[in-house]
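Hey, I'm writing a tutorial for new members on how sequence and structure tokens pair up, and I'd like a real worked example in the thread rather than a made-up one. If someone can provide the structure for the chain below, I'll link this post from the tutorial.
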Amino acid sequence: MKTTTLLGVLKTEGLENHGPTGSQPVTLVRPENRPLRNDGIRNHWLQAGFDYQLKHNGTGWQVTSPDWTGDWTGHVYYLVEPQYLRHVASLPAADGSVIDLVPGEVYELRETQPGGAWGLFGS
């Protein structure tokens, strides 16, 4: 599913993940103050070249990616705030505003330019 309407550009923060010895470093980002929670925490989770879907499943905003493999699979990841790990229903925009997520809508997170900003797309 590719949604085409750009609803906003996200404010993000990044981290370089060095991975196994000898592997190329991978830069991971997240929407500012929006880690993922499952049976643990994924602090930085957006990776260049991957697309992500946000959908409310009755409990919270679940994040999925068809590109996830390995230890990312088989888990339910929720968008949360970092201090108390409570579910959230908004994302921070690069312009300082907040983008509210509406249950029943399905959103996508994609890079808006290679190595650059991430956009929230909806229908």
